Amino acid sequence: MAETPAAPRTDTDLETAEDFLPINGTDYVEFYVGNAKQAAMYYAHLFGFSITAYRGPETGHRESVSYLLEQSNVHFVLTSALGPESEVAEHVHRHGDGVKDIALWVDDAEKSFAETTNRGAEAVREPTVLEDDHGRVVLSSIATFGDTVHTFVDRSDYDGPFLPGFEPWDNAFWTPPDPVGLQYVDHCVGNVHEGEMDTYVQYYADVMGFRNMLSFSDSDISTEYSALMSKVMANGNERIKFPINEPAEGKKKSQIEEYLEFYRGAGVQHIALATDDILSTVRELRRRGVAFLHVPDTYYDRDVLFDRVGEINENVEDLEELGILVDRDPDGYLLQIFTQPVQDRPTVFYEIIQREGARTFGAGNFKALFEAIEREQEKRGNL
Fold this sequence. Notes:
Layout: E1 25-32, H1 36-47, E2 50-55, E3 64-71, E4 74-81, H2 87-95, E5 98-105, H3 109-118, E6 123-132, E7 135-143, E8 149-158, E9 167-168, E10 182-191, H4 197-208, E11 211-216, E12 227-234, E13 241-248, H5 255-263, E14 267-275, H6 278-288, H7 302-309, H8 316-322, E15 325-329, E16 332-338, E17 349-356, H9 366-380
Parallel strand pairs: 1-4, 5-8, 10-13, 14-17
Antiparallel strand pairs: 1-5, 2-3, 2-9, 3-4, 6-7, 7-8, 10-14, 11-12, 12-13, 15-16, 16-17
C-alpha cells in the first residue's frame, strides 16, 4: 500500500503547491456486497485479484466481514454484514452490491477533514486513529452523492497488511490466479438524478478544491433514444477524476435512469481501471469469462477510424477482434472497453482503459458506446 499509484498525468507544470487538499491517489474502493467471500472469489478468478487480507469475527470484528483484494495499485475491499440490522445490510438491501467508499490517500487525514468540513462538507466520521503492532492509521470521512462517502486515509505510520483489524488472508489450498495487468484506478463515475449534476460539481469545487476539467452536454452524449449530461471534476494533479452524470430528456429511458431506478438512488456507475497493455488484459479477461459490451463491426471501418484518430501503435484487427474502442485528444490517444454489469441489477460495471497521452474520456466513442448500452437495456426490457 505504500507505493505511489501510477498517474496518467506527469506534467511538471501542474500547480499543486497551494492545493489545500493534496491527494496522492485512490487508496481503496470499498463495496458493500451480499456475500463478500463469494464476491472475492469472483474478482480473483475473473479479474485476477489476489485476496491478501481479511477482517471478521476471527480478528475481533463482530459486525461484518471484509476481504482485501489487490492487483498492482488497485485495492478493493468487499464487505458483507453479519446481521440484518447493520448499515451494510441496509445498503445492500436498497442498492444491491455497490460502492460505498472511494477512499483517498492523503498525507494528513485530520487536516483533510478540517479543510473540507470547514468549507461545507458533510461529516461522516471524525478523524479516528486505528492502531496495532504495525503502527497507526488515521481515517476521516465525508459524504458525497447518494450514500457514497470519501474516506481520507493517512497510512504514513503503518506497515501492516492493510488497516488495523485486518490480518493476512491465508488458505493453504488456494493458488492465486495470475493478474491480468490492471494497474490503478483511473477514474470513478457517479450517476445522480436530473438537476443534481451541477450541485455536486459545485460541491467538489467548494469543499475539495476540484476543478471542472471537461463538460459534455446532451448534444454531445445522445442517441436516437436517450441522452445524458456529464461534467468531469479533477483534483490538482489529476490523479483523482470524478465524471458526474445526470439524465437528459430523450424518447426512451437513458442508461442513467435505468441505473438510478435499479440502484434506488445516486451512486457509482463504473470504475475505470488502467492497464499498460489493453490487448493482453482484455484477451485474458474474455478468456476467463468477463462479458463486455458489443460494438458493431462498422465502428472499425478503417477510413473512418483513421480519419478520426490518426495513426496508433496497435493493429486495428486486434482492436476489432476484442471490441476495443479508440479515441484521440490534443494530448494523445486512448483505448477503452466496457464490461456488462457485474451483478444481477444493471448497475455497476467496469471500464478498462489504456492511455497513450490522452487526458480525456473517449468523447468520439460516446455514440457507439451508448448505442451498445441501449441494446443491452432493450434485452432487459428497460429501454
